[in-house]
Amino acid sequence: MTAGYWEREGLESAILGALAGAGRDVDALTIDDLAPADHFHGGGKAATDRLARLAGIRPGMRVLDVGGGLGGPARTLAATCGAHVTVVDVTESFVRTGAALTARLGLADRVEHRVGDALELDVPAASFDLVWTQNSGMNIADKERLYRGFARALRPGGVLATQEPMAGPVQPVIFPVMWARDASSSFLRTPAAMRAVMEAAGFRVRAWDDVTAETAGPGTADAIPPYFAPRIIMGDALDPIVRAGHRNREEARIVSIQAILDRL
Ligand SMILES: C[S@@+](CC[C@H](N)C(=O)[O-])C[C@H]1O[C@@H](n2cnc3c(N)ncnc32)[C@H](O)[C@@H]1O
Questions:
Q1: Does pTM top 0.85 for this prediction?
Q2: Ligand 1 center from residue 68 Cα (angstroms)
């Protein structure tokens, strides 16, 4: 990833302003009010709910959300499943904004936000029940190291829950995409190659679902309201990204997978 690609100043006020403009009471926000603005992945909160159901998250579970961004998924897992979530993300402004939103929703006792690199997870070995990662590995070339790190963070019998864009059967990818202006910072592999990396890192696949159709966004950016995370974060840069994204899906250049894996 180009250093600072995701960094944005004034994000908290941009989010609150956009939600207020859409008629939300920003002094009494719920998880669902905030969801359009703090889930930054294909399919939004519905995709997070789907993956959470697939993973079977239970109250009290210790969850590590790698690349957790603004924390929408983490707050959802805490508020709706009773999980305790540690969010690690490399983008400082996302971490700051995420912590402020978590405090605003009264979830600071259950969700913690830390700056950190997914390839250098600074957590004790075997300290989590579940590693969660949603649309966060696309800029990371060294997938082998990434998934070895996830396995290290999990207790034996722990679970990996992932949603990830992967390379489709038709290549190349058309740019720009949400996470990269060009191919120099985008590292997608095919589902078969990703599965092999995960298995080599010590995981066994329990569920492997192609969710490309159900997580697809609209074909043009006009349909994305101003209070949605992609619009708030990407601004005018969103329009060519949405056009390219539509082609990437329609032409099978990018697929989206949700998977649950057990750590052996
Ligand atoms: C598309 S956003 C997804 C955010 C969040 N998972 C969600 O679904 O709302 C991608 C996130 O991955 C983070 N990221 C990318 N590379 C990372 C790395 N090496 N270590 C930690 N976070 C990373 C970015 O900072 C960004 O927050």
A1: yes
A2: 6
